[in-house]
Amino acid sequence: MEVSSLLISNGMQEIDFIFTIAALIMSVVVHEVSHGYVADILGDPTARFSGRLTLNPLKHLDPIGSFLVPVLSYFSAGFLFGWAKPVPYNPYNLKNQRWGELMVSAAGPLSNFLIAIAFGLIIRFSSNLGIESAAFLSLSASIVFLNIILGVFNLVPIPPLDGSKVLFSLLPLKFRYIQDILERYWPIALIIFIFFLWQFIAPIARFLFILITGGTL
Fold this sequence. Notes:
By secondary structure, the chain is mostly helical. The chain has helices at residues 2-41, 46-49, 63-77, 100-124, 126-129, 134-154, 162-170, 176-197, 201-213.
């Protein structure tokens, strides 16, 4: 009986890991497609001509960001993180040259927050919807937390993250030197953030999770 229980437990952990990896991959795919879709609406067909306006993950997967990093982060740090290949776009094709790049950049994180809200509301109103599956609710909670992390992290204003392009679009001309500094030293800034400031992301993610789902982590 104990051996059977252990096998079932290990099997469930493997299934949870596979589903969570799948949820991460689809979340980053939606993130990238959102960039391309908004760019296409605003007049730049680069992503469409590149065949990247599709939810087919095979078109977006990055060997390192979509497989190696998620597996290593899961087994070494206990959480999942990753990325997909960036969807190409040409900012000079955008009809709105003032705010177009901001809208394209913000579309990715916004898509993650919308996914988090959608699954978070399912969790919050699960009893009203007649949803009693603990496995489904657990997976939904993982999707919510993953997308919150993706959304918040990508809004950090350090290149090449989306938040940097949002910041650069909002900067007055007299502060453009900040853009020059970040674009020159972004690898150092990103390393400093990951090693010393990443801890500030977790409390924000937990707060948003509780706010959206009404539950706790």
